[in-house]
Each structure stands twice: as C-alpha cells, then as structure tokens.
Amino acid sequence: GCHKQQAAEKTRPVLVTTQTVALADYAPRTSLTGVIAARTLNNLSFRVGGRVAERLVDVGQHVDQGAVLARIDPQEQESDLRSAQADLDAAQAQLTQAAATYQRQKTLLSQGFTTRRDFDSADQTLKVA
C-alpha cells in the first residue's frame, strides 16, 4: 500500500504557469541620496568680463581647443570703447592746445613780449601732453 502511494506522488504532474513574452522598456525607478561632484574641475579665465549673451555649446559636449564656447554681450565693451575714444579725443585736443600755446610763447619770447617763466611753463605743458 505505501509503495503505490509514494509512486503516485512521484508521478504527479508539476503545475506550470506561462506568460507570453513581449518586448518592453524597463527602467526601474531608484531613489538615492548622496553628493554629486565633478570628476574633473577646470579653471577657466577670460580676457574680458561681461554678461553671457549666447552659449554655443551644451553641458558635457566635447569641444576642440580654440572653439568659441559663448558670446559676451558687447554693450559693456562698446561703452568702454566710446569712453576711451572720448579720452583720446580730449588728450589730442590738449596736445593741440599745448602746441599752439608753446608756439605762441616761443614767438613772444623771441620778440621780448613774454617772460622766460611763461615760455618754460608752455614748454613743460607741451612735453607732458
């Protein structure tokens, strides 16, 4: 009796469930905590400062040496240029005036109508201008 019962238990079919296989995207959601740090840190320097008007590359994008990465708003540099041009114009006007004063004092000195001190002052002003 026992043998037959054990043999019957051994030959029982195993229940199996099946499922149709289909291609699907698998992206498990994982939540982690930690600190993010750059693998490498590059110190960058620029010839001029200003507000970035246009960024020409994306973060992580490979760039070649000498490639333009961004464009700076030119308003500040244009303002500096106008200011420097005005300073140059003023300096040229001072030079022209100092040269005219020197020539006038030189002529007056040769005719005896001015002092040596006034001539020397005009000469020094011309040299400084």
What would you note in describing this structure?
By secondary structure, the chain is mostly helical. The chain has a domain at 97-129. 46% of the residues lie in helices and 5% in strands. The protein is built from 3 helices and 2 strands; from the N terminus they run αββαα. It has a two-stranded antiparallel sheet with strand order 1-2. α2 runs antiparallel to α3 (116-128). The longest helix is centred in the C-terminal third of the chain and has 37 residues, at 75-111. The radius of gyration is 44 Å and the shape is rod-shaped. It starts with a helix and ends with a helix.
Query: Helical proportion?
Result: 40-55%
Rg is: 44 Å
- In one word, what is the shape? rod-shaped
* Helix and strand run: HEEHH
Enumerate the strands of the largest sheet in spatial order, edge to edge or round the barrel: 1-2
- Average pLDDT confidence is 88
How would you characterize the largest beta sheet?
Answer: 2 strands, antiparallel
For the secondary structure, the number of strands is: 2
Task: Please count the helical segments.
Answer: 3
- Strand fraction band? 5-15%
In the predicted model, the low-confidence regions spanning at least 5 consecutive residues are none
How far apart are the termini? 129 Å
